[in-house]
Structures are given as C-alpha cells and as structure tokens.
Write the structure tokens for this entry.
Amino acid sequence: MEKKVLLGNEAIARGAYEAGCHVATAYPGTPSTEILETIGRDYRSIKAQWSPNEKVALEVAAGASIAGARALAAMKHVGLNVAADPLFTFSYTGVNGGLVIVNADDPSAWSSQNEQDNRHLARAAKVPMIEPSSPQECKDFTRLAFDLSEEYDRPVIVRITTRVAHSQGIVELSEKSEVAVKPFVRNPQKFVMLPAHARPRHVFIEEQMRKLKDYSDASPLNRIEWGSRTRGIITDSVAYQYVKETCPEDSVLKIGMVWPMPDDLIRQFAAGVEKLFVVEELDPFIEDWVKMLGIRCVGKDIIPLCFELTPDIVGQALNGTNRKGAYPRYETNPIPPRPPALCAGCPHGYVFQVLARLDLNVNGDIGCYTLAALPPYSAMHTQGCMGAGIGMHLGMEKAHGPDIARRSVAVIGDSTFVHSGITPLIDLVYNKGTGTVIIMDNRSTAMTGHQDHPATGKTLTGEETHELDLAMLARAVGVKRVVTADPKDTAEFERIVREEVAAPEPSVIISNRRCILLK
Amino acid sequence: MKNVIFAGVGGQGVILAGKILMQVAMDAGYDVKESEVHGMAQRGGSVDCHVRYSDRVYSPLIPLQSADFIVSLEMLEAMRKMDYLAPNGWLIVNLEKVDPAPVRTGAMRYPPDLQEWLSRNVESTLFVDTAGILKHVGTRKALNIVMLGVLSNYLEFDESQWEAAIKSLVKEKFAEMNMKAFKMGRDYRIPA
C-alpha cells in the first residue's frame, strides 16, 4: 500500500477516514486544528464542520454517534475543559456508532494559556485513552479507537501532544472500511440521563472499564520491548521516542493505552528489571499509578514536571549526558528575541493604540490580540480563557461600582465572542452592568490560521451559510448602545470609545476590519 | 543518521523546505521524521524544523550538538540554533537580515558583527548571498528553495530526485520557477 509523509494531525484525519468515520467536528485550537482542516480538504466523504465551541462540537459528534454514525470531535486540551460537561455524561450514555475525541495537550504551552495534563480527564470521566507516539500510530490508533468505542460502548479519547501533532513521518496507508450508519433506536434508559437511569449506567460503565483493563493488559497498544534487564523504563507518547533514542539498550514498557492502565503488564515488567524508571511529560500520571500498585520506581525525581521533554533532557536524566553547544558563545551583543507580534496593518493594532492612549483597564481574551499585553501596546491587563474578559469586566464593576466601568473595557475577537462571549454579555445586561465590550471583528479565527465561524457566513468546506449578525445579536440580548466602526480611523474610533465608556449603560462597539492576512 | 535543521522567520518557507527534504529522503528509501513549530509562527516569530533520516528514526527532535547541517534563512536565527550544530557540522546562512520587533521599535539593535563572528568561530560556514539569485529567479518567495539547492550539494541525492520531490510538493504553476531557484542554489559558488 502507498506510503506518505504525514503530519501527526493529518495522520489522525487519515485514520478517521480509514475507519469509515461519517461526521467530524471541532473548534480550531493549536495544536489540533489541522485534523479537521485535513478532513474538510481531503476526505470529503466525512461530513466535517467547525462548531462554535468545543462543547457544541462534542455534542454534535455525540448526537451523530447515538444516531448510529461513527463520529469524531477534535480539540486542544483547554477545549476539553469547555467540552467536559458533555464528556462526563456521554461517558454514561456510551455510544451507538463509534465516538472518538481527539485531545491535543500542549506541554511547554507553545500556544496555550496553560499546560494541563488531560490524562487526568480520562480517569475522571471514566473513558479509555490511547496515546500515539508517531504519525503512523496516529493513523493506526485513531482507526482502532472507533472499533474500541463500539466494542466497549465508551467514547474513546486519543491524546496527542504538540510534538506528536506537529511532527511528520512516514505513514503506510490502508483502505477505507465501509461502515454503514446504524439506525437510531430509542432507548431512554441509555440515552436520557435521569438520575434513575444514570445510577445503573454508572454500574455498567464501571464494568466496562474493568473489561477494558483486561484489554489494556493484553492489547498490542501496550507492549514490552525487552533489552538489558538492568534498567526498565515505562514511557508513553513522544517520550517513548526520546527513550528509544537515548537508551537503546534498556528494556521498555511502551504505554499506548494510558487509561485504564495495564496493571498486570506493569507488574510483569517491574518484576523483570532491576531498576524501574518512568519517563513521561507533565504530571506523574503513570508514576503515581505504578507506586499505588506498590512498585518502587523513579520518575519525577529526575524527569522535569514542567515543560515538554527533549532527547537531551531524557538523556541527561537517565544517562548523565550533558550536551551543550560545541562552539563558543556569541557574547559581543545581546541577541534580540523575535517574539510574535501583531502584523503591520493589523486591525487589532489600531484598537490597542486607542486603548493605550486612553489608558483604560483592558479585560482581554484569547486570540492574536492577547499579544497586545506585550510592548509596544502593553494594553491588556487580565486574560484567562475563551470568553472570560466580559464576565471579568462585570466582576470588576461588582467589586468597585460603576466608576471602574468608566475606566475599563472588555475586548474579544469575533470567533471568541461566538465561542464563549454571548452568555457573559447576557449576564452583563441581566445583572445591570454598565461596561463597554469591544468585539474586534476581523472576519476570521485568525490566530489558528484563518478558519471560518458562524459570523463569517462560510462553513469549514467553504459553503455559503447564514451569517450571524453580531450587532443584531448584541441588541437582542438587551444592549441598546451598539456601534460599528472601522478602527483604522483611530481619531474617530477614540471618540467612539470615549463616548461609549462614559455612558452609564451597557454598550458594544464592533470594530470592523478584516485581518490583514486574509486574502 | 543525517540531521538537518532549517531555521528562519514566519513566512520564509522553512517548513516547505523541510518537507521537500523529507520527501527526497523517503523516496530514496530512508525512514524520516520531522518536527516543526506552528502556532504563533504566523505572527512573525522564529520558525524552525528538524529533519532526520536514517534506516530507523525515533525522536523527531534533533539532540544538541548533533545537526549535520543548519540551514538558516536569516542570520540572527542561525545564532539561536548554534547549540545544535555538530562539531563538524555545516552552517549554511542566508546573508539577509530581517529585523525582529525589538529592533524595529528601536529597543535593541541588530548585532552588526554576526557574519564576521561566524566566519571566525565556525569553520564550516557557508554564507549565501541570495539577493542576487532571487533577482534572477524573479521572486523573493523562492528563498527557501534556493537555500535547499545550496544544501543539496552536500547530500547524496541527485538532481532528478530533488526535482521529483519539488514537483510533488509545490503548485504546478510554480514548479518551473522553483526548479530554476533550486538549480541556482545548487550552482552557487562563493564569489571570489
């Protein structure tokens, strides 16, 4: 069969295609975005869509699954927080057609607000999690995940990290399985989680997870590669590759299914080696489990808890190698950093020029514009997660009274507003806030590479659709002062911001100018 | 194992250069892996990609002091990668400079002596004056392919292998222009 060089994310898309996946959903988020982009571009037999946010994406996928289709939802790690509510309960309902959630963690927070370890979520939600370590495994594991999902009646999480998502390698392709969409059969005991239904489902899923533990012990996803018995290393995800690179002589237990953990295999491996190590990125998830089994091992004592691993870090921890540069260091002048910055002509730049000039408190949000927290603008003072700025803006007013709202704004991008900004705007009106919200509408989800969203009027596959009218939406939730303006005329934009911030009632300014990078 | 790092600035085509090398190596029967930086790159940040090929490749990341080649499309970006260069590795550097934000705003200055310092401290350095070549090619967009052409002189693959890989990865209407750029890079000799 044909071999191709694929990115980890492209290989996941290919795996979904080969598995006969019917429906795929996502909200863009680095490092997961290319999964749905690839499906939308290359695998048109799958109905692919951007959803307004990850919660909706998972719900659409779950609906497709319960109706009998094979469905996939992809998101970055913080996206799974947004989708945690459906995750925890669709764990109870289980599936009809296979349901696969691809979760992309971001060790080192290359393009994220935190570096949370979502292996914990699999355990908490009681769903199996499998972890590919290469593009070939990305394809194979994704394909397998659909079968496991149907066989065990569980949603299955495929967890990747930035390094797995954004590494390329050779992938051997296979034929697509032709899988029919099953009929939807009404079964409220399974699909309506009333307390009376949820209780027996909890018992059922605990039983399924016990069966999956047997599978985990026997599955080729978890395998021992015996080498020297002096040292054994348990490892998962891309850390496996670093271990193989730096410790080729050692015995390795490669964990490809990290939840439920293969207890018997771990015991067998530990009994076969003199000294046991665990090499994993971020939290001591495997290490804690191994220790709980009563097995001594060394992990986070020598492997860093923070940031992604590299072959050098693993080599230093396990072999004491300490490579530095081979050449003298240039020290004549400081080397200027090249931080990402707003592009020349970026519409956000005009907005932040004005906000900096007016010296307002700025409650920010997630997008390119978060860069405005840095020089030269230094005009963003709070930021947390998607949509948080508007709620925080109201919270500041609740803390200090309306005066602070006369010196503050919330700023949010168009895509982020649709993702999570609408409900806090409703709250601002409902609970009698008086603040100003600037929706910086650049007609795109720009940060992740220009994806469409409900307010652009185009779908993932480029089809025309209803274009959400942001001004009308703001009026509908009760904002009476709604102004749309081009921020490039900074003098006029400044006048508008002054006027709206001064007004003792809620207002929305839609800063309307296309991203400079949009064709 | 051959280890090649491409470095540059968002928009210079660093990742495509890596992708073409991977394709050539795969077509020649090697196992290949690559790792790249996405995300904030579009906002003018540093971009790099690691390409490795051998009978079997595990880590997609190249360890420190292990790069046989660093191909830098921008001078300052070469400096950031120096710790990766193997003791006998080659540094191939575009002489062109792209000012980073702190230089543009006047907060810092672009170090004026990088070329001189590299010539003095890194024996195997090849500076490529791409400005003239790109004028001949007719577009600045082919910078990555010119640098790939320069690199190709040091690798085992012949021109037809490169041509096949380039043609499989660039748009058809740009194929001829890219092959011209590649050949000019391949023919590049340091001006006497």
Summary: Residues 130 and 257 of chain A are 4 Å apart (CA to CA).
